[in-house]
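Box 3.1 A note on notation
Throughout this textbook, protein chains are presented in two layers. The first layer is the amino acid sequence; the second is a token string describing backbone geometry. Keep the layers aligned when reading.
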Amino acid sequence: MTRPACAVLILHGGPAAGRASMAPAQLTVRRMIPFERAVRRATHGSDVVVSRPAAPGPLAGAFRGAAAGLPGLVV
């Protein structure tokens, strides 16, 4: 597998205060699904990785760490 040239991390919004996790059925999570599909369609066949993690906390940090090695990637 070749290294991707770009990574797209799609994160939903959440409450203004607090660190409570969001349920998958909440609107802030669900409204990102069409956006994710559009990004996947637009980047299909290219060397772009698209991810919409269920819980942005540790997974997003791990994604940023892995993506840091990609030259020219803005994280």
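The chain is about 35% helix and 10% strand. The chain has a mean pLDDT of 74.
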